[in-house]
Amino acid sequence: METSHSNKVELRNLQMEDYDQLARSFRRIYADADVFWTHAQIKKLLTIFPEGQIVIVVDDKIVGCALSIIVDYNKVKGDHTYAQVTGNETFNTHNPDGNILYGIEVFIHPDYRGMRLARRMYEYRKELCEKLNLKAIMFGGRIPNYHLYADTMRPKEYIEKVRTREIYDPVLTFQLSNDFHVRRVIRNYLPNDEESKHCATLLQWDNIYYQPSNNVVEKRPTVRIGMVQWQMRPYHTLDDLFEQVEFFVDSVSDYKSDFILFPEYFNAPLMAKFNDMGEAQSIRAMAQYTEKIRDRFVEMAISYNINIITGSMPYVKDDGALYNVGFLCRRDGSYEMFEKIHVTPDEQKCWGLTGGSHVQTFDTDCGRIGILICYDVEFPELSRLMADEGMQILFVPFMTDTKNAYSRVRICAQARAIENECYVAIAGSVGNLPRVHNMDIQYAQSAVFTPCDFAFPTDGMRAEATPNTEMILVSDVDLSLLNELHTYGAVRNLRDRRGDLYELKIKPAAKQDIEG
């Protein structure tokens, strides 16, 4: 039966709404039968590099797709496998600061081949490479007809005969005609590719307009973070509170820090004004300051050129419920709110707090971060969802009154660093507030935790403050080490998860919040 086509052809960016049609239409081009790109994999690609994922649409039907990531040239110029370059298809190898556009998939539905649709997608990739000022496009290419000649010639001879058009290869011939050249032959690129006899060509297209960034200020792989170990003391007015806040912002910014983290409920001294009320009423009264505090932090983020994580404060939403929230105030003047998902029994009993439902990661000029307030870090599911979104640093503002409560936060935070292959920074308050109900005494030791591997401290401890002492803690973290860990670590917790046995997913009711 012949298939007729009209001329209505569109190339556009892939969207999550396209997934069901992709799953129905396409099998993974290099995988075993009946294996598809999963919903989570497509979502991850669209999260980390949306402009690199495209589809071809003919008469409103998706008939082709091309997927890609950005990597560093030094990672792919030599021998590597498809599993290595894609981080076992987790795409944790994607590096926005890399210089190579790496193709991980191109597929055209068999019924629509011969329409030169793949050429359109390659032209888009070339334009994207030029637009992003990347050095080249690279990928591993199959040589599916090689098995017909493997008994009589080596891969090098086969490639040369394809180049001189003495032999036709459906993949390599097409790539050569699109100005790609073969850099080398790589072995076992796709272990199950029997047609290519376990060989692949490393193909490259050079961007002649590429300008090395000698005179361009690039994102630094090293990020400097400052934590405020905040002393609880009486403050009678908001101006009094912010005199101390600005002191710390000024001090941390003097060290050229990229982030400053304040603790949970750092503004609790303002509740003393409402001590004649009941506990639940006094914290609601304190919530009147929250938006004013946020606005002042936004101004400071701009003035001191630092990203501020405000700790947390009580906040009454339009639904009338009381929540524990904080704000990421970026140094470009933008801000976003984060929420405490799990409130403690004490917060619920004494203050009537409600748990939030908004879980997300945040893009910053220094990488992707996550924020969990105190008790939330004791629930590993939340940080794992964030890790799946590409989180590199997890910030944890906390407030604990006893050492055993602090130990729960600390030990769980350190576990989150190991299992999610990220940095974790925690900051808490010290001292006491004798005139504020339910806020009697504080215990804290702020710290920065790392994964435990050869490139990191052997005990996973990057820095820690003196316990129960007001101070700042400033520490550098190297994000490039995380990229190394994801692919070449002694153990790879993210890559080695058994997706064939279990999975973590958000419920549909909260899906909209996660997508932010």
UniProtKB/TrEMBL annotation:
One of its GO terms (molecular function) is hydrolase activity. The keyword Hydrolase applies. Keywords: Hydrolase. Residues 223-479 form the CN hydrolase domain. The keyword Hydrolase applies. Residues 9-208 form the N-acetyltransferase domain. Transmembrane segments: none annotated. Belongs to the carbon-nitrogen hydrolase superfamily. NIT1/NIT2 family. This is Bifunctional GNAT family N-acetyltransferase/carbon-nitrogen hydrolase family protein.
